[in-house]
Amino acid sequence: MDVTSIIDPLNDAQRQAVTAPSQAMLVLAGAGSGKTRVLVHRIAWQIQVLGVSAHSILAVTFTNKAAKEMRGRIEELLNMSAQSMWIGTFHGVAHRLLRRHAKQAKLPETFQVMDSGDQLRLIKRLLATLNLDADKWPPRQVQWYINAQKDEGIRARHMMETGDPYQRQMLIIYKAYEQLCDRSGLVDFAELLLRAHELLRDNPDVLDFYQQRFRQVHVDEFQDTNTIQYAWLRLLTEGKDNIFVVGDDDQSIYGWRGAKIENIYSFQKHYPNHQVIKLEQNYRSTGNILKAANKVISVNDGRMGKELWTDAGDGDLISLYAAFNEQDEAHFVVERIRAWVNEGGLRKDVAILYRSNAQSRQFEERLMTTGTPYRVYGGLRFFERVEIKNALAYLRLMSNRDDDASFERVINTPTRGIGAKTIDDIRNIARDQSLSLWAAAIVLINQRTLSARATNALIGFLELIKRFDGQAEGLELFEKVKLVVEKSGLIELYQKDKADKGEEKVENLEELVNAARLFDASTIGDLEDQENLGELDMFLANATLESGELQGDDFDDCVQLMTLHSAKGLEFKQVFLVGMEEGLFPSQQSVDDVGRLEEERRLCYVGITRAMKQLYLTYAESRRLYGRETYPRPSRFLREIPSEHIQEVRMRATVTRPVTSVKPKAQSLQTEGKYKLGQRVSHAKFGEGVVLQMEGDGAQERVQINFKQVGLKWLILAYAQLDVL
DNA sequence: CCTCAAACATTTTTT
DNA sequence: ATGTTTGAGG
Prior knowledge:
Layout: H1 4-7, H2 12-19, E1 25-29, H3 35-48, E2 57-61, H4 64-78, E3 86-89, H5 90-100, E4 112-113, H6 116-129, H7 139-151, H8 165-184, E5 186-187, H9 189-202, H10 204-213, E6 216-219, H11 227-237, E7 243-247, H12 262-270, E8 275-279, H13 287-297, E9 318-325, H14 326-342, E10 350-354, H15 360-369, E11 374-376, H16 386-399, H17 404-410, H18 420-433, H19 437-447, H20 452-472, H21 477-487, H22 490-495, H23 501-518, H24 527-532, H25 535-545, E12 559-563, H26 564-567, E13 572-577, H27 594-608, E14 611-625, E15 628-630, H28 636-639, E16 646-649, H29 664-669, E17 680-683, E18 687-695, E19 702-707, E20 711-716, E21 722-724
Parallel strand pairs: 1-7, 1-8, 2-3, 2-6, 4-5, 6-7, 9-14, 9-16, 10-12, 10-13, 11-12, 13-14
Antiparallel strand pairs: 14-15, 17-18, 17-21, 18-19, 19-20
The chain binds a DNA duplex through helix 5, helix 9, helix 26 and helix 27.
């Protein structure tokens, strides 16, 4: 038994957590403090020292990536297969439970998982069926409402009429939605969690089985759990307190999608015998970066309280750059990256982090023109592409005729002469007789009310699916996929798509066949699971649950561009935190709500702590946003960083100021007089600022100045006493 | 059935 | 500015 490899690489706090007796444990792990390491070593400790069987380990994460990493690191540390451990996302584990106990969960064996796109389409259709005006009841809002209820564990039947007409209508829709999902055998993401909770709650034998089975339950990113996830964890560990959670209240940035930071506080109430261990030693960043992060986050109220420290020294100061506009900002950032690379730095160690996706464009353009390889995270994932969804819909329909969402998706894709009228008829029959669309289509054919042409087209479609099903018999998974891709007419459809994207879509379909070839069901569950489910269904479920995360190719040396949210959990030697402006970051929608503002601040904390060696903060004094010129003030978060950790960078001399963003009228004036556009000035009352526009002359001459403290002002030059800086 | 233009909205994202 | 959705017309 080699305990040293488990214990030696740990600091005191980490070791204490790893070797603690089996009891409720809350590890408050600051950014870069070795959170995953603690989790991995804790599991290893139990197996190697306490003799716990791998079979009785459960570990839940939020992302597939985190689950994969944890599994890999455990295997590496223990030098054994982690196959029999339940390590997965909340959704993945819930899905596995529901597959195993479909009957007790009151689900058909062939139930399929919908992603949010499928869900939205289903809701749109439902609203149409209910004759509701989509303008008055926006599908997105309905979707949000339903998911919010499910996240809280609330079923339509639990809800009471409040007399509020909005709530009443939502309730009607929610009820109808539940019925439709049941009839079609469809389960959305929130439903997976809710169903899994109900499965354990309502089936004592099932609950007992898993309570016995899992000797220790581990949870990653606990601050991101929502109500139902936490309730599920509590059920599973009831009375045994065998729960080990790792999280950081300061990195809770998903409140807007139902995460309950309060779960950390409730944990201490619900598990009175719990122990709290704080991990505060940071192994990632320099002292200056950590001190800045600590200061920013300390502005928030009601924290558990944590202060990161390092013994690695202060390192470089944080650089602050005030750009003239967003193009100047991009220019500056890319020049710095080029300098970094020239000095031997790797591009993949550099990240540009922004608050909203729209900000990536300017950087992409700049990187493009300088020929710097880069990668943008967060685009459409593979299994979310239309062409892929279409192909999967055929496969789903083969597996489950009642899958209305898939039926509707491909009934006329590619077009085969089944028009809106025919589909409408099918929908009506389905609604009136509570049938699936497939069954309703058969009824419609037998009614003989359709024109011969429409009837033939419809029969043709049904026959096509049946033929697929017949031909697929006995084929390998990838051959089935190939069959559908080739014979559905999708390839032809995209081949004649003259728009540039057609070719790419054909390639993606070929890639889908390839993905099926590589798909190895045995990596998903263990043998018990595979008996319950066909390989095709496993493939389909996996496609939804793991929507094709583009794994960063380690071979490619690319600058990384992503939102602050997707940067959580990652680290980079050099980080650019761009667009540090009021209204952008913190975002406009957050500024007048304390709770949301605090979440923005945590996001800022996350961003700062991504940096290992160098951190650059940038903002623009003028920015084109949604087609309008705006003059934002620097972000309040900048002021929350003590100036002793910051150095201002000025690159005026080397930057060719783009004149294009300035009104032509002002342009003609810019060479005249004492002040130039972009000139830094200081005012006795308003402080420091930048000249943005000038107009008039003589006594009427006015300048528009963007002041750091007070924002935008027009001043009459004759009165204003400005000092040139 | 397809194409084009007007209207529209526009934080953050995983599963 | 830009991408997406909806409606009219070919």
